[in-house]
């Protein structure tokens, strides 16, 4: 149920896309039968559902709770999980560089900070993986997204 509430826009997109896909089949469709998607109502409906879900997930991305991050940030350690070369090309001045693939081997080092952790990277994808990994290890950890977004918290 929590998943449904959190992703209601995507679910609405899937539903609306399915309707649009079926309507496309019904009103436009492929009369000759040579079109793989539009000559079959099931294919057209499923294609519309996937496209509707993707479209709404892109147009309305899930937002981070920046209020919580702003409260945590002053007392947290910022871990940038990009590679050392990416980190050297630009980073938040108070962040520590621990690449994503090194995190499992550096748990003791992270634990020694004895602070909440905010992970960041270039886009937020690697930091999300690092956040899940650290949360599974019992850390109070948050995904800050990109390092530029973390910089804006201060």
Automatic annotation (TrEMBL):
Keyword terms: Membrane, Transmembrane, Transmembrane helix
Keyword Metal-binding: no
CDD domains: RHOD
Keyword Transmembrane helix: yes
Family annotation (PROSITE patterns): RHODANESE_3
InterPro entries xref list: DUF6132, GlpE_sulfurtransferase, Rhodanese-like_dom, Rhodanese-like_dom_sf
Pfam families reported in the protein's UniProt record: DUF6132, Rhodanese
Segments crossing the lipid bilayer: 9-27, 42-60
Residues in Rhodanese domain copies: 72-154
Protein name: Rhodanese domain-containing protein
Source species: Capnocytophaga felis
């Amino acid at each position: 149920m929590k998943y449904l509430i959190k992703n209601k826009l995507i679910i609405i997109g899937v539903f609306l896309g399915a309707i649009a896909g079926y309507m496309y089949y019904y009103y436009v469709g492929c009369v000759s039968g040579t079109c793989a998607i539009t000559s079959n109502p099931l294919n057209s409906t499923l294609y519309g559902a996937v496209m509707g879900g993707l479209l709404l997930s892109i147009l309305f991305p899930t937002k981070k709770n920046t209020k919580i991050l702003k409260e945590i940030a002053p007392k947290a350690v910022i871990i940038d999980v990009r590679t050392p070369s990416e980190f050297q090309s630009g980073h938040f001045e108070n962040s520590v560089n621990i690449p994503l693939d090194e995190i499992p081997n550096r748990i003791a080092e992270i634990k020694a900070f004895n602070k909440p952790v905010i992970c960041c990277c270039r886009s937020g994808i690697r930091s999300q993986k690092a956040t899940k990994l650290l949360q599974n290890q019992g850390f109070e950890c948050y995904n800050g997204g990109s390092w530029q977004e973390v910089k804006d918290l201060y």
